[in-house]
Structure formats: C-alpha cells, structure tokens
C-alpha cells in the first residue's frame, strides 16, 4: 500500500449548479467519507469512527496484555516466561542435552531469536545467562561453560565466548514433549510450531521462583527446596483441601541459593496464605576475636540478590563518610571454598553495635517482597501456596492423561497393523497368489481389502512385508508383539479409567525427582521474628554510673572509670561542678534501662539511660531540662532504673523528707507523658526524696539525720492511687533540723550502712533492728558527735559489695564494704573517706557484688 500511487479524488460535483460561488461556502465532507475516498479503490477496508482517547486506551490495553502474557509473567504450570521456554526449545532443537557437547551461546541465542523469539539475541542472551547462574536460580536450567557472571556483580562474557547446554532440570521440563502432551501454536512467522507450555515434570515455578514487571502488576516468587516441595505435593495429592499452614509442615519457607538467614515465619505464613508477604533475609555473620583484644565480624553468607562487591563498597563508603565508627579494615577472602568477608574492628569498638548498624544501613538485612502472581489459563492471578501447588498437579494430571492417550493410540495403531499381518500369515498362499495375479499394487490392495476385510493401512503393511516375515520365527514374534500390545492397551485404558492410577504415577515421578535431585535446605530459618533495628540496638548494653547534681546537671560514665580503693583514701575527682553545685544522686544502670526521674514536688519523668549523654569523668554533664520536660523550680530527688517497666510487677514505695510514705502499683506508671505525671500529693514544706521498687512483701527501713531509724512491713502502707498523698512513716525528733536522710528495703541477710557528713561510716546487721509499727520514733542507729556530723545517707549492703561515695566538691571514692567493719547500732564507726575541711559527703551508691566488672588491684594512693 505504501508503494502504490494514491489517485487524486475527483471533487467536481455531478451537477455544476451545486458548486458554491466561493471556497468559504464549501460544505464539510464527513470524516469517514474523506478517509474512504483517500483509500485506493476503496476495496477491502472499513473505516470506523472513533476518538483519539478511545483509540489510545484500546491500543495501550493491547500492549499491556501483550506485556503481561507474552513477556513478564511466568505460566503457573511450567514456571517459565515465553523467552525462557523458547531458549529451551532452541537448545532442544540443537540436541544440547546434558550429555552433549556445549555449543556457543551466540548460536543458541541466534536460533532462539531466529526461530522463536523475534526480539534479537541481545535480549535473549541475558535471560539465558540468568538461567545458568547458580546464585540466581536454586536449580539452574542451563549448564554454562565460561564466564556467566558472579555474585560480585561481574558481568558475563560476551555470548561469542561462552558455551551452554541444558541442565538435568531442563530435560525434566521437556520430557514427553513429543507425545502430544501440550498444545502447540505457530511461531511468530508461521514457519514452525512452538509449545504453549512445557510438560514440566519438575515443579519449576515454586522451586526456582521468578520475578517480572508487567504493566500495572509485578511478580516476585522466592525459590524453594525441591525435597520440601515434593513432600508438600505428596500431602496435597492425598489431601486436596490442605491449607497453607498444613503445607508449611513440609515447606518451611523459601530456600535461597545464596544461603543466608530468614528471620521469623510471620511474613512467610502471610505470603503462603494470601500470595503477598514480606520475608526478612539476613547475612550469616560471626564475631571472632583476633590478636590485641580486637574483634572481627565475618560474613559468610549473604541475602538473596545482594551483590557482595557492592556491599563491600557501601560499607567502605559508610566508614569514609564517618557514619560508622570502629571499623579499621575490610577484606574479602572469598575463594572456591566459600564466601568470607572480614571486617576488622578497633579494640574499643563494640562488635554488636557495629553489626546492628550494618544490618540497619546496608543490605546485610534485606526484605524479599513476595508477590506470587502467575498466569492461569492466560489470565494473571495472585496465588496462595496451595493454589500454586494445585495448579502444578492439575497440569501434571493433564500431561499424564494426554501422554497415556498418545501411547494408547500408538499401541492400538500398531495392534491394528499386527492384526492384518496375522490374517496375511493365516492366508499366506492366497495372498501371494492374489498379489502375483494383480497388475498393480493398487489393484492388489483393493482385492485384499475386499476379500479379507482389511483396512487400507493393513493392506499396505501386507504389501510391504518382507520375505523374512514368512519364517516361523517371525510369525512367533508377531504373535508375541501382538499379545504384548494387548496388555499395554489394557494398561493404558485402566489408567484413563482410574484417576487414582494417575495420582500414583504423579507420585512415582515426583519420588524419582526427589531421590535423584533432592538436597538439603540452604537457608536457615531463625525462629525469632525480625524487629526494626532502633537506636537502642545500636547501643551496647553496659553498666554505667549516672550522676545528677543539685542544680540539675546529669551525665553517665562507664563504671570502670572509678577503680576500687581502700577505705580512708582521698578518692578521685568524679565531676567538675559549678560553683556552689554539688552531686546529689549517683546510681548504676545499664544503657538499656529505663530511668524514672522523680522530683521534689512529686512528679515523675522517664528517659532511656543511653539518652543521657556520656561524658568524661571530670565533665560537668548536661542540664536535665534539655532531656526531660521538668517544670521550673523542680529538682530531681529520686531515680529508679527499670529494665522493662511495662512488664515489671510490684509497687513503687515513695518517701518524703518529712517522713511520709506512699505505695502505688508499678502498672500505673506504664504510660508516662513527655511532660511527666503527678505521683505524690506533697505538703507545702515537704519534698519527695526516695523511691524504691518493692514486691509487695518487703520491709522498709527509714533513717533520720539525727541518728534514728524505724523498720516496718510495707503492708502497713496502704496502696493508693498515683496522685494521692502519703501516710506517716516515722515521727521525727522535735530537735531542730531533723529529717529523713535515707529509705531502703530490708534484707535480713545484709547490713545497714550509714555515713556521716565527715566521712565516718559503719554497718550494722539488721538483726539489731527490730520490726516496729509504722509511724513511731524508731530506735538509735548511730551515735552522733562533732567527729561524725549528722547522718547524710544510708544503704543496705553486703560485705562483698562496693561503695561509691561522692562528696559535695565532686570527689569520688570506690571502696569495699568489707573494709568498713561491722559494729553495733550505738557506735560511731570508722573513717571511710578523708575530706578537706570545707568538704562533706554528698551521697553513697551501692554496687552489688554480682555486677562488679573485672578490675585492677586497688591503689590506695590513686588520686
């Protein structure tokens, strides 16, 4: 049409009088008429009126469906896209079986493009490369020879350099193709036929998975273990209504060719039940020590589709940009024995922290988004695991039935011929005479068909008989072959009449695949569910010393900052404080603890310990108001470290400086707002000073500044709501200046240690403190004098514990409790720390024996 000359249409009207006087008065011809007039001879064409919008919509829809069906999505039956199926067909045409010699990839790609896939060998070759990569497919369909790429992301060699042939799995897909088991269709130029699907004895879709992006949809199916899949197919044959949960007893989850880990089964269950889900993959790593006290992180397996070289480059880039600290070297020791990437760390680096950072910021932890979409009868559908396996079994039933029909027809056709030969042998002389008397073969055939009631096929077979057929031995062979064919016919007919026989054949073929090709699972499924790696996971869990000053400055330092000293030492400077500022709180907490901050006005705030800035031993710290929304005029007076306060049980027992106590269930502190909550209705001249976490069966001891103490059971303190006030715990002395200086939980196996302002301290067994009723004056706990000063703190201690004593001027000393001898209630005690004339003890913190770090021998002269 493009080369033909288009004639100029004759626009002269039949009646000249109808011609307009001016061009502006020319009538507009209909579009259809104008288009038709432009077509030569106007024959064989139909002009349809349509809008551009409708035409674009229909054209794009046709394109989209072509992309979905003919390019992007695999068929649920054989798990192949058209280009993959055509590559295997081209290799089959070249007889490139597993035992054959490899052929150039360029030849295979060229034959595929020329005979089946009209999009060029440059498109075909990358597909064939992926089918040969053992790190892309769990069970490769192509056996490649040469450079077909690597897990490092190296590109494959050009197709003129590589060679290939089919793998064993490809031959299982093609088996029985020549037995009319599938439908065939014309290729793109109608010069030959190609199958619409392969017989597919190997469950390729679920075992090798697949991915593809079509128009408006995409598929992403993970690979699985053949042995597990066949076990599940066995179960599904016997239990057609099996659920995805039942099938998961056989198929544990995806099995990636690159090994690695899968975290949890929640995403797997969702994917198998609905066809969509997320599978969390993670690299297999180990932390190994090396010389000089350093550690390494060794990566031996990667998540599926993660390119090793790009991962190494990404880690190196993070180090270069100083987004991660602690890495000093990065080496790749991968060889033919396996993958090994070694990340060397600094001595002070925390391996778990570095590893968590890498898991969060690199593909070492990746998500495989499962989207099981495949073609069923030419239509894309999202499929659950039972649907995928059921579709495969349905296809195999159809293949076996069609194969059986083919074999049955073949056997019947041969039996038909043998029946004619048997007749000929029975009437041999007459047939020979008839043939000799006939002028042509056609006349002989007609006469035989008429006289002996033979078909044309039988008559032709008789005419083609050789003389050796006339021997007695040949006659016996005919009879034996005929009897054998009758048995085969009965066998095939029984299969077609009995569905259970078809199921049995499927099982036998699956068992053959399982025994021949089944292997162990590569990807290990870790029972724990993957959780988002938060800031806390990047912080090593270690014990810290947290201190708060009177003016509200807070800091944390490693516990090892303060070595143990003997009593009477001068201590070590623990903080540089502002003028007239002093240390008021000192406690031990791990970096992952929650810290509840209680203020003098009866409010509580919450913070994670790692959120407290870590500083040097002599630094002043950060203002608390920058970390929590403490109200103006409030001071932090008590802290309670809790590992997980939402799951913790028991009570919080609160005590004030004027001797009031209160008990509230810990569960009432589960939901804390950023601006805090009221927890104690404080009197005007009082302040909340102490809070302890109790079980509900503890005893309490309260110690006053003027040397008195009282011990009572916590059940005497009624449990009250969070915002209620308290009750009297101890009646203070009428002597001016008396107040409560300490409240603690009683442990009968331990001692009560008290310390005076001037550094004099003593410890007394609890057996010397009798239990009393709440609200009394108590009993004497320390004989006070000018040498001791008033009591400033009290702690419940064990002789194996350590004490951390801090003075108002920031001097800190850490000593053994056993260095302070046990004495009676009414004694003064011994000197625990030497103080300057203007300095006094501020607080004492107990460090329990089971939390002591490895520490060097004490140095009594340490400053």
Task: Provide a short characterization of the protein structure.
The radius of gyration is 45 Å and the shape is elongated. It is α+β, with helices and mostly antiparallel strands.
Give the SSE map.
Elements: H1 31-38, H2 52-72, H3 82-93, E1 103-104, H4 105-115, H5 121-132, E2 142-145, E3 163-166, H6 168-174, E4 184-186, E5 193-195, H7 204-208, E6 210-213, E7 218-221, H8 226-238, H9 244-247, E8 261-263, H10 266-274, E9 276-282, E10 284-289, E11 295-301, H11 308-320, E12 327-332, E13 341-345, H12 351-361, E14 365-371, E15 373-376, E16 379-382, H13 385-426, H14 428-437, H15 441-452, H16 456-463, H17 472-497, H18 499-517, E17 524-526, E18 543-549, E19 553-558, E20 564-565, E21 572-573, E22 583-590, E23 594-599, E24 603-608, E25 622-623, E26 636-642, E27 651-656, E28 660-665, E29 677-678, E30 688-694, E31 699-704, E32 708-713, E33 727-728, E34 740-745, E35 751-756, E36 760-765, E37 779-780, E38 791-797, E39 802-807, E40 811-816, E41 830-831, E42 841-847
Parallel strand pairs: 8-17, 20-40
Antiparallel strand pairs: 1-3, 2-3, 4-5, 6-7, 8-9, 9-14, 10-11, 11-13, 12-13, 15-16, 18-19, 18-22, 19-25, 21-40, 23-24, 23-26, 24-29, 27-28, 27-30, 28-33, 31-32, 31-34, 32-37, 35-36, 35-38, 36-41, 39-40, 39-42
């Amino acid at each position: 049409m493009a080369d033909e000359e288009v004639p100029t249409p004759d626009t002269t009207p039949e009646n000249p009088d109808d011609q307009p006087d001016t061009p502006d008065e020319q009538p507009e011809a209909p579009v259809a008429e104008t288009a038709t007039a432009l077509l030569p001879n106007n024959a064989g064409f139909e002009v349809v009126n349509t809008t551009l919008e409708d035409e674009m919509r229909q054209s794009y829809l046709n394109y989209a469906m072509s992309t979905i069906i003919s390019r992007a999505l695999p068929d649920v039956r054989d798990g192949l896209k058209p280009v993959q199926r055509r590559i295997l067909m081209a290799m089959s045409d070249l007889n490139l079986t597993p035992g054959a010699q490899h052929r150039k990839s360029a030849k295979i790609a060229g034959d595929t493009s020329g005979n089946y896939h009209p999009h060029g060998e440059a498109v075909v070759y990358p597909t064939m490369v992926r089918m040969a990569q053992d790190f892309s497919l769990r069970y490769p369909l192509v056996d490649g020879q040469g450079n077909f790429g690597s897990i490092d992301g190296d590109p494959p060699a050009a197709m003129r350099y590589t060679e290939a042939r089919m793998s064993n799995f490809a031959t299982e897909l093609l088996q029985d193709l020549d037995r009319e088991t599938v439908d065939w269709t014309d290729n793109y130029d109608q010069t030959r036929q190609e199958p619409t699907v392969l017989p597919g004895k190997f469950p390729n879709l679920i075992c090798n998975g697949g991915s593809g992006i079509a128009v408006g949809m995409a598929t992403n199916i993970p690979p699985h273990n053949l042995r597990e899949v066949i076990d599940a197919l066995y179960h599904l044959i016997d239990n057609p209504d099996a659920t995805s949960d039942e099938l998961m007893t056989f198929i544990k989850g995806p099995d990636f060719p690159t090994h690695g880990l899968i975290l949890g089964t929640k995403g797997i269950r969702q994917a198998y039940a609905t066809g969509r889900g997320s599978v969390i993959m993670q690299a297999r790593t180990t932390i190994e020590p090396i010389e000089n006290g350093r550690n390494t992180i060794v990566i031996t397996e990667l998540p599926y589709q993660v390119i090793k070289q790009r991962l190494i480059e990404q880690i190196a880039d993070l180090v270069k940009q100083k987004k991660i600290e602690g890495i000093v070297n990065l080496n790749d020791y991968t060889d033919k024995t396996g993958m090994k990437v070694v990340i060397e760390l600094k001595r002070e680096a925390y391996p778990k922290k570095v590893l968590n950072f890498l898991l969060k910021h690199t593909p070492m932890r990746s998500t495989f988004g499962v989207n099981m979409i495949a073609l069923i009868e030419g239509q894309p559908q999202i499929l659950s695991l039972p649907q995928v396996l059921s579709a495969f079994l349905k296809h195999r039933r159809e293949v076996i039935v069609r194969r059986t029909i083919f074999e049955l027809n073949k056997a019947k056709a041969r039996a038909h011929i043998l029946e004619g030969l048997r007749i000929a042998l029975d009437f041999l002389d007459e047939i020979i005479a008839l043939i000799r008397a006939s002028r042509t073969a056609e006349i002989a055939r007609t006469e035989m068909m008429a006289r002996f009631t033979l078909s044309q096929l039988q008559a032709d077979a008789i005419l083609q008989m050789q003389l050796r057929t006339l021997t007695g031995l040949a006659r016996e062979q005919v009879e034996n072959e005929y009897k054998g064919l009758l048995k085969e016919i009965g066998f095939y007919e029984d299969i077609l009449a009995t569905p259970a026989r078809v199921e049995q054949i499927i099982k036998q073929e699956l068992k053959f695949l399982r025994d021949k090709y089944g292997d162990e699972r590569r990807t290990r499924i870790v029972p724990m569910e993957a959780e988002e790696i938060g800031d806390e996971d990047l912080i090593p869990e270690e014990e810290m010393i947290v201190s708060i000053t009177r003016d509200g400055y807070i800091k944390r330092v490693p516990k090892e900052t303060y070595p143990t000293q003997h009593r009477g030492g001068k201590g070590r400077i623990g903080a540089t404080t502002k003028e007239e500022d002093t240390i008021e709180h000192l406690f031990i907490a791990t970096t992952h603890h929650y810290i509840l901050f209680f203020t003098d006005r009866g409010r509580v705030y919450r913070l994670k310990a790692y959120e407290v800035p870590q500083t040097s031993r002599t630094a002043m710290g950060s203002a608390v108001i920058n970390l929590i929304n403490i109200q103006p005029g409030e001071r932090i007076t008590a802290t309670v470290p809790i590992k997980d306060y939402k799951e913790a049980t028991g009570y919080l027992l609160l005590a004030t400086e004027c001797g009031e106590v209160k008990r509230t269930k810990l569960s009432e502190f589960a939901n804390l707002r950023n601006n805090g909550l009221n927890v104690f209705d404080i009197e005007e001249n009082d302040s909340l000073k102490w809070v302890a976490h109790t079980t509900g069966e503890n005893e309490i001891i309260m110690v006053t500044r003027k040397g008195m103490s009282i011990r009572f059971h916590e059940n005497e303190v009624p449990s009250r709501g969070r915002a209620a006030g308290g009750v009297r715990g101890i009646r203070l002395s009428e002597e001016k200046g008396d107040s409560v200086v300490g409240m603690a939980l009683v442990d009968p196996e331990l001692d009560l240690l008290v310390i005076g302002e001037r550094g004099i301290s003593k410890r007394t067994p609890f057996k010397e403190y009798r239990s009393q009723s709440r609200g009394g004056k108590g009993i004497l706990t320390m004989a006070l004098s000018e040498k001791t000063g008033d009591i400033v703190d009290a702690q419940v201690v064990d002789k194996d514990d350590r004490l951390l004593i801090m003075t108002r001027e920031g001097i800190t000393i850490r000593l053994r409790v056993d260095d302070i001898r046990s004495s009676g209630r009414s004694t003064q005690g011994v000197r625990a720390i030497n103080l300057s004339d203007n300095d006094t003890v501020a607080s004492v913190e107990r460090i329990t024996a089971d939390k002591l770090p490895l520490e060097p021998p004490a140095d009594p002269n340490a400053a």
